């Protein structure tokens, strides 16, 4: 990744346990001398560094040393964030499609979706957009063939075996099943995003 970054690849599958390793590695590596930023992905970690403070080979050696260490030495609580949502109707226009696609009722979709606690694999697509997983296969659904030009802020969608929340109005092709009033991105705050990679999210039903 050039002379100011190293890309660490831990695997090539969408897996909660593998993604947890990415975040554990990020927490360790960000404390190394010369590291200026870490950017976790599904299965990779981008480590940016200041070449004036550390050499590439030395940093690679330190990363490999950290990778070989026992994960039990990492002490950090994982945050669990509850997101209140309203399902169906104008809040989730694709809820009935998801139910029909899987041969179940809309109430079952809601029950299954709220039963899980989802891991924030990474943030991307738009500022503060969390990619959450893994969605129960009983409510997995394909993306729209033609994306919507406008998806309301706070919309909760499903795409394959992932779920996510649109932090602001934008185009999007995920199947919308619910909506929240929670603000996920505010550039006036520090940090500007409510969620961070490695957090866990639980959806909670609220009255319309």
Description:
Helix content is 22%, strand content 30%. It has 208 residues and is an alpha+beta fold. The chain has 2 domains: 5-73, Gyrase A, domain 2 (2-Layer Sandwich); 80-205, Cyclophilin-like (Cyclophilin, Beta Barrel). A 7-stranded mixed barrel has the order 4-11-8-9-6-5-12. Strand 8 and strand 9 form a beta hairpin. The longest helix is centred in the N-terminal third of the chain and has 14 residues, at 16-29. The chain is elongated. The relative contact order is 0.18.
* H/E series: EHEEHEHHEEEEEEEE
End-to-end span in angstroms?
48 Å
- CATH homologous superfamily classification of the largest domain: Cyclophilin-like
The CATH topology of the largest domain is Cyclophilin
Domain count? 2
Write a concise keyword list for the protein shown above.
Gyrase A, domain 2; 208 residues; Cyclophilin; alpha+beta; seven-stranded mixed β-barrel; elongated; 4 helices; 30% strand
Topology:
Elements: E1 5-9, H1 16-29, E2 35-40, E3 44-49, H2 56-68, E4 80-87, H3 95-102, H4 106-115, E5 117-123, E6 130-133, E7 148-151, E8 155-159, E9 162-165, E10 170-172, E11 175-179, E12 200-205
Parallel strand pairs: 4-12
Antiparallel strand pairs: 1-3, 2-3, 4-11, 5-6, 5-12, 6-9, 7-10, 8-9, 8-11
